[in-house]
Design brief:
Mean pLDDT: 79
Radius of gyration: 38 Å
Number of helices: 12
Helix content: 55-70%
Low-confidence stretches: 1-15, 346-350
Largest sheet: 5 strands, mixed
Number of strands: 5
Distance between the termini: 42 Å
Shape: rod-shaped
Length: 388
């Protein structure tokens, strides 16, 4: 955690407008420290080398010059002004510097330092590359009419300080872009977490609630004549409900990683309760499959079995787990095929939220999903890569 994170009220963001008086004061100090180059014009006016009217005009011109400079450098860093206005203010700043130097003497040549800083701070980078040297050239022309030696002494400072300001501006812009990128990443992470939670809740609750519904219907039919069997169904409903609560808590905390063996056992229970003849592998061969790959196949099995129970109207369901060698390398393939006519992809056989979320899960694990009509019903195939 940085100092800025611990003390947000003390952090003054680069490229941002001041949020309070303290930030305003800090930015004024940062910009105003460069007013040291105005010490020579101020000393010239205070020394009384000019007539009263000339001194008054000098103070007025210096005040206007400082105001335009602060407006360009200080205000434009927070919320950039329109380019024509920026160019117009820089022209005004340059004209003021030229007029003040020609009328009041060589002591005012230091004003061109501020013109150069304004060009580097307010103009686009390409424009600043020629505007800064042009400012130095204008100062040299003015120096021919005032004091060429002083102009020669200042020309390097004028050019270097202008280019240094372009670097400061680029740093500010980069900082602003990084801040915006960080906010975007945080927003995308929040969206991804919401999608993960939505997928988990859909897969978990869809399966559990379907099983609860089936067992509730069975208990209702058994209750008049077979109370013992109905009580067993009610006990199973309680067990499924408790497990659903555990699964939801794990999904919310992000630790839900289903095991394929457990999902196969659950699929056997769900298919049997729905009156579907099930053929499932007794011991899944998961050699070479990582945890993410196994979890993706477990989610695929859960989604497929839920759709068979809810939508297919099937009487038979076959689940196979095979190792295959493909052009993409060794793959572990899970296939779930039924003989129903209702479609296992959702209502009407369309790809609903379940298959869409399942596709995203498999893609994250480097796998793929195929789902569609088979010869006698519906077939879902999920593949994940194996480690050689």
């Amino acid at each position: 955690m940085t100092t800025e994170d611990r003390c947000p009220e003390r952090a003054t963001g680069l490229g941002q407008t001041p949020r309070n008086r303290r930030e305003l004061l800090r930015k004024l100090v940062w910009v105003g420290v460069w007013l040291v180059f105005m010490s020579s014009p101020v000393h010239d006016l205070a020394a009384g080398h000019h007539t009263p009217s000339g001194t008054a005009a000098g103070w007025l011109g210096l005040t206007v010059f400082a105001g335009v400079y602060l407006l360009l450098v200080f205000r434009n860093m927070g919320r950039p002004m329109r380019r024509p206005l920026v160019v117009g203010l820089i022209v005004v700043l340059c004209l003021l510097a030229v007029v003040l130097c020609l009328t009041l003497g060589a002591a005012w040549l230091g004003l061109f330092c501020y013109v150069s800083v304004a060009c580097g701070a307010a103009l686009p980078l390409r424009a600043a590359y020629w505007a800064v040297p042009a400012t130095g050239a204008v100062m040299m022309l003015v120096g021919l009419a005032t004091d060429l030696e002083t102009a020669w002494n200042l020309v390097l400072v004028v050019v270097l300080i202008g280019f240094a300001m372009t670097g400061v501006v680029q740093l500010i812009r980069t900082t602003v872009e990084l801040r915006e990128a960080r906010a975007t990443v945080a927003h995308l992470a929040a969206n991804e977490e919401r999608l993960r939670l939505a997928r988990d809740l859909h897969d978990l609750l869809g399966h559990s609630l379907s099983l609860i519904t089936l067992k509730s219907e069975l208990a209702g039919r058994m209750l008049p004549g077979h109370p013992d069997k109905a009580a067993q169904q009610v006990a199973d409903i309680e067990q499924v409900s408790r497990q659903a609560l555990v699964d939801v808590r794990e999904a919310v905390t992000g630790y839900r990683r289903p095991r394929l063996s457990a999902e196969l056992a659950g699929a056997q229970v769900a298919l049997t309760a729905a009156g579907v003849s099930a053929e499932l592998p007794a011991e899944p061969d998961l050699a070479g499959a990582g945890e993410d790959s196994e979890a993706a196949l477990a989610w695929a099995l859960r989604e497929a079995v839920t759709n068979v129970v809810r939508h297919s109207g099937a009487r038979r369901c076959v689940v196979q787990l095979l190792h295959r060698q493909t052009l993409d390398g060794p793959m572990l393939e899970l296939s779930v095929e039924d003989d129903g006519s209702g479609g296992s992809g959702g209502s009407g056989g369309d790809r609903g939220n379940g298959l869409t979320g399942l596709t995203e899960r498999l893609e994250k694990a480097g796998g793929m999903l195929e789902a569609g009509r088979a010869r006698q019903g519906f077939r879902l195939v999920a593949r994940v890569p194996l480690t050689p």
